[in-house]
């Protein structure tokens, strides 16, 4: 008898494991305290994973496979996954143990060590989900994302002409994309599901699992099956793709997901394959060129074929050290409003409140609002990581860590981003509607009522001046800062110091 372990983020129905029904194979899918407790997660995130896991187990059973689905009630007597596995192996007289490559270093190490203790055969197989392999980073002659992405476009013939040239003659349409959102442009209503998760919530209460965030009426709005994920993909292509790239960096209080796909949970739990999403986008663009420009399709495909595969490659090449990097020596604790959204900074309160309500914020809210604030204020990357890893529906370490510690906090010293994503209130005003209803004045740099992002930005440049001297991409702000005399600099630095001293009251 063979035991095959399926982790909560391995819900890939197309995996070759499931091609044939084999009575000598038992699949194990288990809700575990080690997974609910390694960080405090959003309630919707745990509900989404547990519900999707249970539905996946049921679908496998219906297809004839032998599946053991264990809830927290069943696994409460086991301290961790290895204990549960040892028990199951003994109980079913298992002769062979198999598992799919975990995407998290923590689980990878745990299972590797566990297999070393086994007296039966064990085997780790590919998860058959990603487009590139775990060691993709090592194979790269150039480590910038753009290079990686272009190579994959060619290799997989995505948006390419016959002669190895990109469709439309360009690799990148950023200049057409990334605009702010005019008031007159209507936003697409997000497609929301309504999955009753009362029993999961009761189970979490019964086991005193600590969570964060809210859920309205105990109904989950996220897709928890492959079918629902496909529905969300179709909704995205028809309703959002035509304006995706154009407004992908825009922020507004008029909506919480704008033209974004919200497919990250379906992708990261493996209910959808990235190539399936890429080909669907490419085909949709081919068939609807009157409605969808190439810039929109390329802008979306770049996120999945480029960024998603790239951060995974970086994660596996840099772990475990990456998790400890703190290049800018940031030490401050996370302000309390990250947990309740109660701050007078409108941009922050909106981004945080919607994260608490929906377990979701789009990329620019994560990068240029909450991430930017943490970077400017010098919050310790461990605290920043834990917050991002807990709050978002799609947060799994392999994708969260490079984005948070690397891209948003520059804690890796520029491995993923060639310069820090630091911006003053000016950027936020340009890309959002937040500043109009804010307590603070985005035009003011100093004194009471001035936008905290302004003075904090220059304080950040000032305190890391020596570090940025050698970074050509920081030349412009550094030159400007140096051109100011002390009389101009001091009030800005004093305002920032006052704000940092009272950071919890901002
Ligand atoms: C600080 C920070 C933390 C982040 N943490 C996570 C995380 O834990 N999990 C996660 O999946 N994404 C993370 N991202 C990347 C990105 O913000 C989310 O993938 C995206 O917001 C998910 O929403 P969406 O599905 O609507 O994305 P869309 O905007 O519709 O993009 C489509 C897809 O592209 C992929 N994608 C886009 N940007 C990235 C990126 N930078 N890295 C990897 N994949 C990307 C995602 O799979 C996403 O579903 C983070 C970004 C930042 C700045
Ligand atoms: S004024 Fe400053 S704090 Fe307020 S919304 Fe604008 S950028 Fe954010």
Kindly describe this structure.
The chain is α/β, with parallel strands linked by helices. It folds into three domains: 124 residues, HUPs (Rossmann fold, 3-Layer(aba) Sandwich), CATH 3.40.50; 183 residues, Serine Threonine Protein Phosphatase 5, Tetratricopeptide repeat; 169 residues, DNA Cyclobutane Dipyrimidine Photolyase, subunit A, domain 3. 46% of the residues lie in helices and 7% in strands. It has a five-stranded parallel beta sheet. Helix 5 links the parallel strand 5 and strand 6. The chain binds flavin-adenine dinucleotide and iron/sulfur cluster.
Throw out a few tags for this protein.
506 residues; DNA Cyclobutane Dipyrimidine Photolyase, subunit A, domain 3; binds flavin-adenine dinucleotide; 9 strands; alpha/beta; two-stranded parallel ribbon; globular; 3 domains; binds iron/sulfur cluster; 5-stranded parallel beta sheet; Serine Threonine Protein Phosphatase 5, Tetratricopeptide repeat; Rossmann fold
């Amino acid at each position: 008898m063979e035991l095959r372990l399926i982790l909560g983020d391995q819900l890939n129905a197309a995996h070759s494991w499931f091609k044939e029904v084999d009575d000598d194979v038992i699949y194990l899918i288990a809700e575990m305290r080690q997974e609910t407790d390694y960080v405090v997660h959003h309630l919707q995130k745990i509900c989404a994973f547990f519900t999707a896991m249970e539905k996946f187990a049921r679908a496998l059973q219906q297809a004839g496979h032998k599946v053991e689905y264990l809830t927290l009630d069943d696994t409460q007597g086991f301290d961790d996954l290895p204990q549960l596995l040892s028990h199951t192996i003994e109980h079913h007289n298992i002769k062979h143990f198999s598992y799919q490559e975990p995407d998290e270093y923590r689980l990878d190490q745990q299972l590797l060590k566990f297999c070393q203790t086994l007296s039966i055969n064990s085997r780790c197989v590919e998860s058959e989900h990603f487009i590139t392999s775990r060691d993709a980073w090592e194979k790269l002659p150039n480590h910038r994302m753009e290079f990686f992405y272009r190579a994959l476009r060619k290799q997989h013939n995505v948006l390419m002409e016959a002669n190895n040239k990109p469709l439309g003659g360009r690799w990148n349409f950023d200049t057409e994309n990334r605009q702010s959102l005019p008031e007159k442009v209507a936003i697409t209503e997000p497609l929301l599901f309504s999955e009753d998760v009362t029993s999961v919530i009761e189970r979490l209460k019964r086991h005193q699992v600590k969570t964060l965030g809210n859920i309205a009426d105990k109904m989950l709005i996220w897709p928890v099956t492959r079918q629902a994920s496909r529905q969300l993909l179709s909704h995205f292509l028809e309703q959002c793709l035509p304006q995706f790239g154009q407004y992908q960096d825009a922020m507004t209080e008029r909506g919480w997901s704008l033209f974004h796909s919200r497919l990250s949970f379906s992708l990261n739990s493996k209910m959808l394959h990235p190539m399936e999403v890429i080909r669907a986008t490419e085909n949709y663009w081919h068939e609807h060129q009157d409605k969808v420009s190439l810039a929109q399709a390329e802008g979306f495909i770049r996120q999945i074929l480029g960024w998603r595969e790239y951060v995974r490659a970086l994660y596996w090449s840099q772990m475990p050290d990456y998790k400890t990097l703190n290049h800018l020596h940031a030490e401050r604790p996370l302000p309390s409003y990250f947990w309740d959204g109660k701050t007078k900074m409108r941009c922050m309160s909106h981004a945080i409140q919607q994260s608490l309500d929906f377990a979701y914020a789009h990329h620019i809210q994560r990068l240029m609002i909450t991430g930017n604030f943490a970077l400017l204020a010098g919050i310790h990357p461990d605290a920043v990581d834990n917050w991002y890893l807990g709050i978002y529906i799609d947060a799994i370490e392999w994708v969260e860590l490079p984005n948070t510690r690397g891209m948003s906090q520059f804690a890796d010293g520029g491995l993923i981003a060639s310069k820090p994503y630091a911006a003053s209130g000016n950027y936020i005003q340009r890309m959002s509607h937040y500043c109009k209803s804010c307590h603070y004045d985005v035009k003011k740099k100093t004194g009471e009522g001035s936008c905290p992002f302004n003075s904090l930005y220059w304080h950040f440049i000032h305190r890391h001046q020596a570090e940025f001297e050698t970074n050509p991409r920081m030349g412009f702000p550094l030159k400007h800062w140096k051109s100011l005399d002390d009389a101009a600099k001091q009030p800005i630095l004093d305002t920032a110091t006052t704000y940092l001293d009272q950071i919890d009251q901002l």
